[in-house]
Amino acid sequence: MPLPHLDRPFDYLVPADLADAATPGCRVKVRFAGQLVDGWLLERADESAHSGRLAYLEKVVSPVPVLAPEVAGLARAVADRYAGSLADVLRLAVPPRHARVEKEILAADAEPTMPEPTTPEPSESTPTTQRRSGWRDYPAGPALLRALTQGRAPRAVWSALPGEDWAARYAEACAAVVAADRGVVMVVPDARDLDRLDAALTATLGAGRHVCLSAALGPARRYRAFLAARRGEVQVVVGTRAAMFAPVERLGLVAVWDDGDDLHAEPRAPYPHAREVLLTRAQLAGAAALVGGFARTAEAQLLVETGWAREVAADRATLRSRTPAIVPTGDDPQLARDPGAATARLPSLAWTAARDAVRADQPVLVQVPRRGYLPSVGCAECRTPARCPHCAGPLALPNATGTPACRWCGRVCAGYACPECGGRRLRAAVVGARRTAEELGRAFPGVPVRTSGREEVLTAVGDGAGLVIATPGAEPVAEGGYGAVLLLDSWALLTRADLRAGEEALRRWMTAAALARPASRGGRVVVVADGGLAVVQALLRWDAAWFAGRELAERRELGFPPAVRMASVTGLADAVADLLAGARLPAEAEVLGPVPADDDRERMLVRVPRSRAVELAGALHSAAGTRTARKAADPVRLQIDPLSLF
User: Which CATH number fits domain 559-640: 3.40.1440, 3.30.70, 3.30.1340, 1.10.3470?
Assistant: First the structure.
């Protein structure tokens, strides 16, 4: 049951007519507190330790054992890690039942079929083995593949080179594990990355050797893919965070790409992170683990510094040959040549880089942090931010001829007047991707301009001259690489009130810069920022490991995750105080707050050393169970190591 005080197994009797269908892992219905509820049959036993009277199972919903024992154990560990309930984790681990798909599969099992021809194992002369040379650009890469092929369990944090075909490298690692007759689970942030990895695995392993799991597939396709993995029909499962609990037999490798992307964080209770779930799974199953990305998170750096994982990175000579020429616009030499670069949105250096790439018939990528046209406007006279007179929300302009509208309540404010000076003219406070496309289209007449963002996300663009204006995460891949990459409005990323502002800015910049051509082929990256900033220096040197180590050291000094374990307790003030008063927190626990949260709620933070993480989660879960047992009215949300602390 999802209630914390009922988070434990319950015993039921199995009637004789359900004895054959009631197999461990199947879905059942039982009577609980007078109501018919859904449940999972975890195991069958000859006797029960319960001294009272036992009720009978009411129904076996399906005889298909969809809950694997390994996944059930993992779900219990994840629930304990995040102070959650097993029922909530199983809701994430097993997709909803699709009866028609189950009937089709059971009917197919009942019919005699001819054995399907097996796919021959790749030989030493096949293209699969030849493609493994991509890991030779990294000194530890060949050793990683050998360990995977031999069935061992290496753990690696991989820093990908600029321009790297990361999907092909993951496919090669997957092929090595499959050659050892082991299974693989790989998780990527979004559907575009999944399509790219899907194509790479098909080219490396052949068609039908893997399945994709994603909520975007739809109920039927997702459930069919899930059952294929559960029944052992495929050894490889890839997908978005929905695949982190995928049932795979003889698990040999778990891998996650770009673990800093916030899409890896589950927004439903108990809010697990795909990276942490996969690392827990590797620990429990004795499997290999691979955490990869162009950038590196502080959590991944902690794995390296503690010795839990080894670093896989290229040497400096290889890195220099693959990196584009990266220059900032805010350092002293640039300011001497262009004094306006300190305030210009598109300094002359960036404009020149784009012009040279277009003249060379090469595409140009422009990364803009904000979508829309003018997502924020202000008074043209006194520069007071324009706010909605009804709800005080920010006003925005949808297009060049549109009227200002509130981004919160949606009301149109055609007759807006500044409350400070009475002015009626508006100016741009923040420029979005569509306005940037309009401005660059006028600056480069005759050059095709395309946008990639919320309305339409481009997958790939051609090799000819053109401008692509994209928001972070929506950058399309260019055939042959971009001639120039412009990183605009850096202040929007660096001034966020977030613990991970610098880390997230570097991740977004490196993801975009990795799409540029090498400097030897004319590739240039211009970041509109001060070159003296540490995060900009990390980009200039393409040294995400250095910046991650610096971030981790600062967080150790200040007592922030991942150096410590932090819990967020959010709710009404009385409810939060009630839960913390009843929690038996570790002696080392430090309670911080309260601070205001949304909707008249407040947040308290509880900080403990990492060695007391299990005690913290257990204490909070127990306190939550006490409140639900006495039917406390106001709910409290518990989050362990939330992405945002502010």
Answer: 3.30.70
Find where tokens 């007449």 sit: 445
Q: What is the pLDDT of residues 413-444, one digit of tens each?
A: 888 888 888 888 888 777 777 788 888 888 88
pLDDT, tens digit (0-9, with 9 covering 90-100), for 116-126: 544 444 434 33
User: What's the pLDDT score for residue 413?
Assistant: 86
Alpha-carbon distance values, 2 to 7, 359, 513, 631 (Å)? 7, 62, 45, 14
Q: Is the pLDDT of residue 609 over 80?
A: yes
Domain 1-65: which topology?
GIY-YIG endonuclease (3.40.1440)
Residues 460, 450: Cα–Cα separation, whole Å: 11
The structure tokens listed for 117 are 């021809």
Six token digits for residue 122: 């790749």
SS3 state at 445: coil
Residues 6 or more apart whose CB falls under 8 angstroms from that of 554 comprise none
Query: Which token pair is 243?
Result: 């695949």
Helices (DSSP H) in 94-158: which residue ranges? 99-110, 127-131, 141-149
Length of the chain: 646
Buried b / exposed e over 408-417, threshold 16 CB at 10 Å, is eeeeebeebe
CB 406 within 8 A of CB 413: yes
Strand-pair partners of 292: 158, 257
HSE (side-chain half, CA atoms, 13 Å) at 333: 4
State the Cα–Cα distance between residues 334 and 342, nearest whole angstrom.
Answer: 9
Domain 127-318 sits in CATH at 3.40.50.300
Decide: 67 and 86 in contact? Cβ < 8 Å: no
pLDDT of amino acid 607: 96
Which helix (DSSP H) or strand (DSSP E) does residue 278 occupy? helix 274-285
Answer yes or no: is pLDDT of 412 > 50: yes
- How many CA atoms are closer than 13 Å to the CA of 255, on its beta-carbon side? 31
> pTM for the complete prediction?
0.89
Mean pLDDT value across residues 525-532: 91
